Amino acid sequence: MARKKKASPRPTAEALLALVETSLDDDKADDIKVIPLTDKSDIADFMVVASGTSGRRLDSITEHLLARLKTAGVKDAHAEGRRSGEWVLVDAGDVIVHLFRPELREHYAIEKLWEAEFANRASQEAMPA
């Protein structure tokens, strides 16, 4: 009779974030930014934005990140946009990672979009009823 392999527990959002940051740092991703989404969005607890200098570098960063996530028990992590070599999204559940070529990152300015969203919500919440 074959023994069933016990599934490893899924890491917490904070542990997942630490793993992502370490992986990106080890692979020399540029300008790593963490955007906390807790209580602000249902899509994830954290969004991480980073850059890579070429499509090949983005693919390498993505490959290593997916391998580390799988090893950590995040079996459903997946990447989209790898073929373009311009913008890759890695969905790890509680943490979403956007990897950009620098010029595309500057064009979309995703960090500024989220900062504006947070500022708008904060000002609305501060308004008296």
Radius of gyration: 17 Å
Q: Superfamily at the CATH H level?
A: Beta Polymerase, domain 2
CATH architecture: 2-Layer Sandwich
Give the termini separation.
66 Å
Report the β-strand fraction as a percent range. Answer: 15-25%
Biggest sheet, open or closed, and with what strands and sense? 5 strands, mixed
Total helical segments: 4
Q: List segments where confidence is low: pLDDT < 50 over at least 5 consecutive residues.
A: none
**Level of helix content?**
40-55%
Give the overall form.
Answer: globular
Give the C-level CATH assignment: Alpha Beta
Describe this structure in words.
By secondary structure, the protein is an alpha+beta fold. It has helices at residues 13-26, 55-71, 102-108, 110-126; strands at 30-36, 46-51, 78-80, 87-91, 95-100. The protein has a five-stranded mixed beta sheet with strand order 1-2-5-4-3, with helices on both faces. Helix 1 runs antiparallel to helix 2. The model has no long low-confidence stretch (mean pLDDT 86).
